[in-house]
Amino acid sequence: xxxGWSSFMAKEVAEQPEAVAxxxxxxxxxxxxxxxxxxxxxxxxxGINRIIITACGTAAYSALVGKYAIExxxxxxxDVELAHEFRYRDPVIGDDTLVVSISQSGETxxxxxxxxxxxxxxxxxxxxxxxxxxxxxxxxxxxxxxxAGPEVAxxxxxxxxxQITALLLLGLHMGRVRGSVAxxxxxxxxxxxxxxxxxxxxxxxxxxxxxxAGWMADTRSVLFLGRHVGFPIALEGALKLKEIxxxxxxxxxxxxxxxxxxxxxxxxxxxxxLVPSPxxxxxxxxxxxxxxxxxxxxxxxxIVVAEEGDAAVLPFADEVIRIPLAxxxxxxxxxVVPLQIFAMALATxxxxxxxxxxxxxxxxxxx
Length: 367
Ligand code: F6R
Hints:
Blueprint: H1 8-14, H2 16-24, E1 28-29, E2 32-33, H3 42-47, E3 50-55, H4 57-74, E4 78-82, H5 83-86, E5 97-103, H6 109-120, E6 124-129, H7 135-139, E7 142-145, H8 158-178, H9 185-215, E8 221-226, H10 230-245, E9 248-253, E10 270-274, H11 282-297, E11 301-307, E12 319-323, H12 331-349
The structure holds fructose -6-phosphate.
């Protein structure tokens, strides 16, 4: 039931603090992350030397955030591969490989076939899934459920946040088992603080971003730039816009600009730029600020998503969307929220059905 909401998507965007809190619940013990479902897999986590995360669409973008987090914390090389690509080539996998699949529905045929393929080739499989008892978790050796609750709108929002949360938990869990995270207390505190920070973004930016989308209802193309874990969020922001507002949108790694995409910038082109906190890396931050200057000099209309207090972006931004301070791996969960609101508000401004976009199904059960 939609309750008082204008759409399921609006309801599900608003439910993100709860979705993230429910996914974390029961998985923190003291100042450590312990996922009870993975009890007994310590030997596996110690024995593997490679992880492949496989998924489609939004779930594959959560996987890209997971790559950064798992490599950082568990010190295992991680590749992310679209399920429909992984399955139709001859990947180098074996019993030293853990194949992690991510699926909200647990029924996506491409992802299911990738999991079966991995098992046949001797890899161990773990699924991250939002639907209890679905086919993909049943076909996997282990499962970590996201507890986002049922997602009805075709465009994935709260499931995406819960997927990233589960990947962060998995990274910290494996990091503890492998001894590569000695002290997780700061990260555990970041996790615990997430729901409230997401709620804060929803509260403080909903009106601003909705207004912005209203002004931009005639826009024909929007670009998104990010670096580090902001890169997958740029991809996700673009996908949301394509899906529900039928606008041409593309996400880029900001560092790629000068290798091609900057040629797209002409006066008036709207560009969202996800600015990482200068507290995480002064260098990465300043690189993004110079990217903003480069596109601004060519007439782009720059909409910046930056942490509270980051004044370096002010001289070059047409609009500034603020998110609370958070650790590097946790920022994506805050930065994605205004992009979801933007896509939803733009679709609404165009008079489109945000829950049932054309040509799309909630669960893609054909290959
Ligand atoms: C985007 C979206 C799709 C799904 C993809 C995978 O908003 O909903 O890109 O993320 O079809 O679906 P699941 O997670 O059910 O495997």
